[in-house]
Write a structure and sequence with these properties.
The chain is mostly helical. The chain has helices at 17-29, 32-46, 52-56, 60-75, 79-92, 97-109, 113-126, 131-143, 147-159, 167-180. α8 (131-143) runs parallel beside α10 (167-180) and α9 crosses α10 (167-180). The radius of gyration is 22 Å and the shape is elongated.
């Protein structure tokens, strides 16, 4: 059996002695090794190494179902609902590119191009060289009158599609051709 050690809680709990007592009881019943493991997981969460889904060991199927619901809301034109769900997913599962890309698409549909670019940037951090993300971000840059960045993204998408078969890259080709005319 592992030795239990007294716990020093933050001083702001001094103003709530009942709450402090309850927290101390719960923490005091948790083995020291488990507390250390939990603290290490929180550190990894705060540095971005772990998502909240990984910290809490949430089943992936729940996250996927939430994403399906949000995608359905988006397709039905319920943009505020889709936005709310995808925002939550971006927080609890920040390492999944799809959530950021989808929230970017919601913002793009709402003509909030600056926010869309930010979310597409996050999606590209999670999944580099994603053609659809590059094309969507490039299109947002076009709406923001930033032709240099738009061309950079669109050309990057085109260069990733050597066979000329990806529909997103083909969209980029059409947009670049339109810019040159």
């Amino acid at each position: 059996m592992q030795k239990r050690v007294g716990v020093k809680l933050p001083s702001f709990l001094d103003k709530k002695p009942d709450l402090k007592k309850k927290i101390a009881e719960v923490v005091g019943q948790t083995p020291l090794a488990k507390r250390k493991q939990d603290i290490e997981k929180l550190k990894q969460f705060f540095t971005g190494e772990l998502s909240w889904v990984e910290v809490k060991q949430l089943p992936r199927r729940y996250i996927n179902e939430m994403a399906k619901i949000a995608t359905m809301e988006f397709k039905l034109g319920h943009l505020k609902r889709a936005e709310a769900i995808f925002k939550g997913l971006c927080v609890i599962d920040h390492k999944t590119a799809y959530h950021h890309r989808a929230l970017g698409a919601v913002y793009q549909k709402q003509k909030n191009f600056e926010s869309a670019v930010e979310k597409y940037n996050m999606a590209l951090v999670a999944k580099e060289n994603d053609i659809s993300t590059l094309v969507n971000r490039g299109e947002c840059y076009l709406h923001l009158n930033n032709k240099v960045q738009a061309l950079a993204d669109l050309n990057a998408a085109i260069n990733l599609d050597k066979n000329g078969k990806n529909p997103w890259a083909n969209r980029a080709r059409v947009l670049v051709k339109g810019l040159k005319q």
